[in-house]
Amino acid sequence: MIRLISALLTLITCSVYASETYFTTGPAVETIAGLKDCGNRSRVSAVGTIESDDGQQWTVPADTHFQTAPHATDLYNECGGNTLNSVTELDLKKVPLMDAGGDEEFIAYIFADNYFELSVNGTLLAVDPVPFTPFNSNVVRFKAQRPLSVAIKMVDWEENLGLGSEKNRGSNYHPGDGGLVAHFKDTDGNTVGITDANWKAQTFYTAPLADRDCLVINGSIRDSSQCSTDGPQDATEYSAAHWQIPADWTSPIFDDSEWPQATTFTNDTVGVNNKKAYTNFTEVFDAKGADAEFIWSTNLVLDNVVLLRTTFN
To answer: Sign (positive/negative) of CA torsion 179, 24, 61, 194?
Structure first.
């Protein structure tokens, strides 16, 4: 009985701790100059650390498995990879078969702005080979057992570490935007699932915040919709909000029932109609009868680390 009470207290404590909001101010300290060098046409995918008001250290824009996990196969990758003109040029037999347990084979087609990590049934299968830009798209082939519990970590990368922004559109601190579109198929070409409003989406890093009070926290709701998305010339005194990511969030038995539903966005809003990494593969991303939608949290601009979950039967 004592052990049971102790375990319950630990669970309650962890749950409360995981939902607490932590704030940082100003820029982070760079710890990695860049995860991948794509030359002059790309933005630098640097990583940094920053201390919150309580003295806790945070990695920005996110802790990732980029340096240790398998990289997803290219559909379109101008950073030293393949640049296919359409899905018809893809030879699936040359795509490595990842193992999430089970005998049925599936294919995931993914376009991520900027970076993704794909887990199925609790197993990390592959990560985005380009953390920042140029924009790319990928395919992941894997075997698994239904139902498919799909968990995707999304990171909207940043140039101004700790401040969720980049030099763009005449501003030194322009907040960028994110977005994910994906289509999962079986080996017969049948749609297993697509990105849509049925997914769950939770935010774990929001920046830049000109005013911390603009952020509304209500239970599992982390609403930054009232926060400014303007791009100033100087945001060095701006803040960022952080939340601890649960260690077991990719598990099929993880309880995401209180997470908000994903918000969908149009192609125009995300701005992909001039990106070949997307437009070359509209036959899978905008398939007739299975048109995958771009998904994110409620704030496509300020929410920079978003965890996405769903189950396909």
So the answer is: negative
Q: In angstroms, rounded to a whole number, what is the distance separating the alpha carbons of residues 153 and 276?
A: 23
CB 179 within 8 A of CB 295: yes
Phi and psi angles of residue 177, each rounded to the nearest 5 degrees, phi first: -125, 165
- Which residue's structure tokens are 């952080």? 242
Note the pLDDT tens digit of each residue in 95-133: 999 999 999 999 999 999 999 999 999 999 999 999 999
Collapsing DSSP states into helix, strand and coil, what is residue 154?
strand
Residue indicated by tokens 């601190």: 173
Closest CA to 140 of 34, 63, 69, 203: 69
Element (H, E) at 126: strand 123-127
* Cβ contact 206:164 at 8 Å: yes
Each residue's pLDDT tens digit, 8-60 = 333 333 444 458 999 999 999 999 999 999 988 799 999 999 999 999 999 99
| AA identity, residue 209 | L
C-alpha–C-alpha distance, residues 120 and 142, integer Å = 9
